[in-house]
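A common beginner's mistake is to predict each chain separately and then try to dock the pieces by hand. The better habit, illustrated here, is to supply every component at once so that their relative placement is modeled jointly.
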Amino acid sequence: MLRQDSNDDTEDVSLFDADEEVSTRSKKSKIRHPVASFFHLFFRVSAIVVYLLCELISSSFIACMVSIILLLSCDFWAVKNVTGRLMVGLRWWNQVDDDGKSHWVFEARKASAQGKKVSSEAESRIFWLGLVTCPIIWVIFAFSALFSFKVKWLAVVTMGVVLQGANLYGYIKCKVGRRTNLTSMATSYLGRQFLRQTVVKDDQAES
Amino acid sequence: MRDLKAVGKKFVHVMYPKKSSALLRDWDLWGPLVLCVSLALMLQGGSADSKEDGGPQFAEVFVIIWFGAVVITLNSKLLGGTISFFQSLCVLGYCVLPLTVAMLVCRLVLLASSGTVSFIVRLVVVMAMFGWSTLASTAFLADSQPPNRKALVVYPIFLFYFVISWMILTFTPQ
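With all components supplied together, the output reads:
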């Protein structure tokens, strides 16, 4: 692709565009914060792994419970304060006014005009994947603990569901924005999917 | 770090309970979590079967503290309090600190001897810390209630710390 003859301006311009495109494409798939991505997944996955393997690793129920609690708290703090901000540019917190009223604030970082701070797609995918699958797994654990009458684990599992569900809820609210509420967003999404499917069916019927 | 310093500041505020906005305004639940876990760990090895290794007791202490705090918060909110849910949880959790200190002292006393004298010492220490906890949390929480309802709010707090003090006092290691 490298041209020796650089007298032709148009060739230079097209080369420059191709380079720019390649670099933005690589930026989108590059992971900019490898440490944050690692820890985002590490705490969640290790909490689940410890819960599953606790019978095998150690005979002490307390050690397992304390380590799961510590991992869940570290994960909550890391996801809420660090990885959400770095990986997808969202954050949420609770603010108490001077007169004692508390309200929750959800913020999303605006994409800058030239796309300099393009959030990479790989990071965003890792973030949302970790954020959504782990609470679902903890809910499954909750049902299994309930139905197999292992009540002593219910405290830990409840804590897992609450902490990870809270992060999930907070970040979804950040993403969606304060004006729309979640039910209207869900119904509009389902409506769009239904419309798309009927249009595709019509196309197939016609052809 | 910022969060660790905030937690440390709140611990200091509990030990010297004056009406401060730090505990109320910037609430966080890390202190209560640490206190709850350490108290539950110290209450282990109590008069339970050694085969069970005190497993259910750990979860029991945990559940009692958190469930009790949630119930008190709901009670104060239903009575028309102006404090928010998490702020109240934060205050109640942090005011468990004197009782955790009492537990530490009790364990040390029990290492030395376990006769009548040690029981009296433990009783005095636990009662003092129980009073301190109740006063500290009342100082923070009662102001958010209308004046004729203060007793209704203080009574569940009294019960809550009484139950924890009872668990601490009746702890006998094996």
